[in-house]
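Field reference: sequence -> structure
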Amino acid sequence: MYRKTLIFLLFVFPLHAIAQYQHWRFGFNAGIHFNPTPVSIAGSPLSTDEGCTTVSDRKGNLLFYTNGEWVWDKTNNVMQNGIGLYGHFSTTQSTLAVPVFSDSTQYILFTLAAQAGSFSSPYGGLSYSKIDMKLNNGNGAVTIKNNLLVTPACEGITATKNFNQTESWVIVHEWLSNRFFAYNVDCDGIVHTPVISSVGTVRNSNVFGSNEGTLGCLAMNEAGTILASTFTNYIDASNAHTMVELFYFDNVTGKLSMMESFPIEIRNQLHERGYGLQFSPDGTKLYCSTHGLDQGISYQRVYQFDLNQQPISSSQYVVSSGGKPYGSIQRAPDNKLYIARLNGSAFLSAIENPNLAGMSCNFTNNAVTLVSGLSTWGLPNHWDYRVPIEDPKIIVQVDSVFCINSTIELKVKQPYNGVNYNFYWSNGMQGESIQVTDSGMYIVEAILNCDTIIDSVLVELRHCDCSSFIPNAFTPNNDLKNDHFQLYYIECVFSEFSIHIFNRWGNIVYASNNPDFKWDGDQLDQGIYIYEMKFKTSGENLDRMNRGTVALIR
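Structure field:
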């Protein structure tokens, strides 16, 4: 009889997701570790008014963190060549890290200047650097620094995987225009010429020439199909509107198209801002934080919008208002949304059930107490939350029975819907199926650009006519009934055979290479003995082993 055992060798890139964001470093020397609930930790040297990001490996081990200007390694020391990046501690989303899918030790680190260069001229836009985690004894080093991509740019940046899951789109908004730039980062970490979409509101300065209109986050839903933007739209000398704009994103072409644009606050004030932005895990809700002045009095709010309602603006719900101002909104590994609180608060707020509408989303004012450090405007800018495929069983077959002289068809299925991989088998064949007639380990590699999935199946062919039985007790009393411990078999031709019998202390008391062995107990005491039998039948390539116990009864 033949049984097939599946052995899955999982080398899937990317294997990251939630584990990459277990560590947070933010604010003034604040830190949190999610494992799985948030625990405040001390020891972070990072200090930032606003943007930052923290990156861990696919197992959740801290790698590095940055405020867009300095990069610190896992030992809390400045990374080699990690000073002087073109971000800024007062940029809404000052930095964002994208893994290189063909090499899990490489990262592209994007940085944004503050207020289109008002605080950091002359590099008032988007730049990128590269980090190699193999260098400096595994603590990493910045190898390429400050390659300028677009200037001037607004302060929001986000990313998503493209349709084949092995490349990324990084998206920013140009200042003083309505143009979005979508940069394709391929699986080798090459940043390509951007795809430009002219859509939505022109981002402009106020009458005093301030670049505060650059402020505000970008956010992408988990599916990578809807982009959200919030910002302040200055109308005239006394009017400013907090805006939310939603766009359809084509993750094949990188193009954006308008979904809905609406103001959420019209206060006839210059000093009002849309700031934090985040989707619920299921993508049905959008949350936005705002702050400003109303007739000279400070106000702050967190809003919820339901994307299933039309128009979306009609679903506006105030989740929370008052208290200390609200900053960035960030999804965490526990699938809650955490909210930074100003200014120098020793706690974070949270939306406990962000998929639920209205008050059911459950806002908690003091959700995490910071035992060390303080909260400011920003939280780590994380972007990819899709759970990886943990068990990509691309070989279709389940446990089956095959006999010698049979032909077995091994089939594969595409690992991702809508993405066609190329399949290469260990016997030199290609394609989605192969015919096999021999025992052995068959390995298939599914390859698409830099993405490789490896799966294997152990095929063992056996003589179906060979059947055997071994008893679990015998009585060597010379009554000619069950006097020996032996193997009973029919139509079996053994090419290899061995049996060893052990006492309870592990000592060998009997051994034979003859399948027709007969053990009479050798005058040993009554008791339980352990046997180990190894054999191979004619025509088989794989060894078989049976272990068990037998009772010697006198």
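Note: The radius of gyration is 32 Å.
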